[in-house]
């Protein structure tokens, strides 16, 4: 294993638990070699083994702080075995859509694995770890046990699509209908840029389903969340679903078809969310159950939205189309705003509008999305259910 000299400041950082390497941590930045597994040292002092791979503003990740630890199949096998065993409880509970491996939270940054009832999808998040692909796939196969097919997606590569892993997919499919609770979700598994269903929204989907009976629903920025499908499945009288994305519209139509819902009771609009909210206000349209998956940034012909600047305005616009006693789910999946700030911005917006609300259940990374608290204080996913009084 090649030895890479690091700075004294970097020694303190890594020995304190921080896992990500930056270029300034290297005495000689030219030592960077993408995909290489190295020993980080200060003189004769071993600090950690790591691999180089550019991601999230860094150039690599710590693998182990044990000097005598070989970075081999046994090392990676232990990481995957530990992670997979922690998901057994979810599988025993019949939760077939879950995250099997969550990158740094499970001890190996740059790689995640999502399971859709045995159709398992690896996401490679940087090109460095992808250099270890053959070794890691072999280890993953040995540790997975029961699965149907294995797929992969090069998240670091623009335009990449999901493909089956030939050596680990005896019967690959282009898509699969997967049951979560009482709702079927079509999942794209080949020649698509996303599966169409983000696992992390699972708990929100269930709670939206539980509240949907006989309600008039509105879903905003719903692409990939599955919440619109859950709401319809829960028994709404009617839904309006708005997203300025062709993919969102086609995904929802596929979900409606897979579940045999009546399309006539569902309004699926590809348009500006802000434009629709203006339209709904002018026409005095009101909703009992609303989901808003808040984007970090969005721009259309007339509007520009940034979560840090404009969340309050969005909350105000949503509140104007909410019925008395309406239930609203606000979610977002970003590290640009922490959960405390997210809640306070929403609370302040309602207060300034003179609307009384009760704050109900809050959402964070579910148990299959562990985080490394030495790297981040909380996971990127956050949400809250608000009840208008």
Descriptive notes:
With 389 residues, the chain is of the alpha/beta class. The chain has 3 domains: 2-64, Archaeosine Trna-guanine Transglycosylase, Chain: A, domain 4 (Roll), CATH 2.30.130; 73-181, RNA methyltransferase domain (HRMD) like (Transcription Regulator spoIIAA, 2-Layer Sandwich); 198-388, Vaccinia Virus protein VP39 (Rossmann fold). The chain has 11 helices and 21 strands. It has helices at residues 8-15, 73-86, 88-92, 127-130, 133-144, 202-211, 227-233, 246-259, 273-282, 307-319, 339-352; strands at residues 2-5, 20-21, 37-42, 45-55, 58-64, 97-102, 111-116, 119-124, 149-154, 163-164, 175-180, 183-188, 216-220, 238-242, 266-269, 287-293, 297-299, 304-306, 322-333, 357-364, 381-388. It has a 7-stranded mixed beta sheet, with helices on both faces. It has a 5-stranded mixed beta sheet with strand order 1-3-4-5-2. Strands 6-7-8-9-10 form a 5-stranded mixed beta sheet. Strand 9 (149-154) and strand 10 form a beta hairpin. Helix 2 crosses helix 5, helix 6 packs parallel to helix 7 and helix 10 packs across helix 11. The longest helix has 14 residues, at 73-86. The N and C termini lie far apart (63 Å). The relative contact order is 0.09. The model has no long low-confidence stretch (mean pLDDT 97).
């Amino acid at each position: 294993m090649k030895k890479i000299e690091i700075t004294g400041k970097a020694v303190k950082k890594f020995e304190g638990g921080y896992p990500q390497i930056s270029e300034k941590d290297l005495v000689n930045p030219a030592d960077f070699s993408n995909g290489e597994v190295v020993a980080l040292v200060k003189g004769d002092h071993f600090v950690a083994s790591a691999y180089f791979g550019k991601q999230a503003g860094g150039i690599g990740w710590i693998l182990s702080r044990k000097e005598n630890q070989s970075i081999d199949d046994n090392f990676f096998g232990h990481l995957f075995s530990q992670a997979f065993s922690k998901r057994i409880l979810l599988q025993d509970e019949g939760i077939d859509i879950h995250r099997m491996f969550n990158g740094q939270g499970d001890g190996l940054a740059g790689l995640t694995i999502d399971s859709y009832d045995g159709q398992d999808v690896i996401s490679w998040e940087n090109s460095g770890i992808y250099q270890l692909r053959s070794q890691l796939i072999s280890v993953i196969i040995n540790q997975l046990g029961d699965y149907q097919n294995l797929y992969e997606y090069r998240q670091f590569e623009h335009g990449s699509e999901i493909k089956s892993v030939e050596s680990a997919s005896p019967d690959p499919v282009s898509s699969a209908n997967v049951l979560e609770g009482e709702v079927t979700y079509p999942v794209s598994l080949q020649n698509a840029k996303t599966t169409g269903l983000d696992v992390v929204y699972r708990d929100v989907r269930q709670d939206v389903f539980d509240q949907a009976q006989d309600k008039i629903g509105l879903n905003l920025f719903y692409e990939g969340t599955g919440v619109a499908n859950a709401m319809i499945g829960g028994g709404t009288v009617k839904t309006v679903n708005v997203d300025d994305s062709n993919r969102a519209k086609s995904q929802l139509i596929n979900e409606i078809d897979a579940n045999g819902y009546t399309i006539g009771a569902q309004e699926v609009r590809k348009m500006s969310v802000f434009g629709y909210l203006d339209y709904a206000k002018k026409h005095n349209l009101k909703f009992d159950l609303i989901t808003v998956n808040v984007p970090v940034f969005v721009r259309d012909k007339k509007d520009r939205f940034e979560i840090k600047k404009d969340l309050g305005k969005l909350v105000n616009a949503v509140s104007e189309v909410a019925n008395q006693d309406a239930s609203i789910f606000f979610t977002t999946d970003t590290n640009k705003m922490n959960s405390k700030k997210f809640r306070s911005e929403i609370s302040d917006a309602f207060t300034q509008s003179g609307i009384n609300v009760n704050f109900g259940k809050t959402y964070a990374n579910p148990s299959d999305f562990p985080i490394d608290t030495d790297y981040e204080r909380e996971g990127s996913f956050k949400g809250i259910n608000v009840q208008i009084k």
